[in-house]
Amino acid sequence: IARCSSLRSIEVMEQLKELNKLLVAKEFQIRIDGIALLMDHCKKNPHFVSSNIVQIFDTFTLRLQDSNKKVNQYALESVVSMIPLLKNGFNPVLFSVVTIVMDNLNSKNSGIYSAAVKVLDTMITYLDNLLLLQIIASRVRFLTGRALQDITDRLAGLVAVAYPRKPQVAERHILPVLWYFLNNMIGNGVLPGKSGNVRTVVSKLAKSLHKQMGLKLEEYVCNQPQHVIKLFQDLLDMDLQ
């Protein structure tokens, strides 16, 4: 038995070595082959991938921000297929992948942008929404442009699912995001130093949170400065098409 076990671990090490070699290759076509091999492992032996996921993704995440657009897009698209196969086995690398996917949401390349959106929505469908809410909420203030719009929009949806499960945990992570927006938005919904108008998505987030928390949220808002109270009320009254 011990001999079988050591042979198995040698085989695993060889497989990891081969995968790593392809994923870091100089030629983009070979890096694509590496991604295809990883996908093959996910389909045929998901346990191998989930057992070694941190080590594998140390290299694979580089392909999610590859300078070659084809590789970048293919890597993102492969994550869309991986998530349903690995499910919770994906959790150890969730933070690092979410962070990189968010960066891809600001890509000027439409293929990369669409693939990043698909990754995000696939995560919401298959993975722990409470864990996702915590990770996403912690990153909001670092986002700009289209990424900020898309992520805030998804947060509003996550609140509806995650809040009923663990209200206190959800509040602890989502309320600072709401205060961040309400305290920093100027004019008609612009955040200083960030591009784009976030008024509509912040309204969506405020409404979603208010639906879950009701009077409790209103009491929290009452302790905020006067301009924040007014803005909050305006956002709740906003007609979302």
TrEMBL record:
GO cellular component terms? cilium; cytoplasmic microtubule
The TOG domain sits at 5-226
Q: Which GO terms describe its molecular function?
A: microtubule binding
**What organism, scientifically named, is this protein from?**
Naja naja
> What gene is this protein translated from?
TOGARAM2
The protein in question is named: TOG array regulator of axonemal microtubules 2
Q: What PANTHER family has UniProt attached to this entry?
A: CLASP, TOG ARRAY REGULATOR OF AXONEMAL MICROTUBULES PROTEIN 2
Q: Which top-rank group of organisms is this from? A: Eukaryota
Mind telling me which InterPro entries this protein's record contains? Answer: ARM-like (IPR011989), ARM-type_fold (IPR016024), TOG (IPR034085)
Q: Highest lineage ranks of the organism?
A: Eukaryota, Metazoa, Chordata, Craniata, Vertebrata
**What GO terms in the biological process aspect are recorded for it?**
microtubule cytoskeleton organization
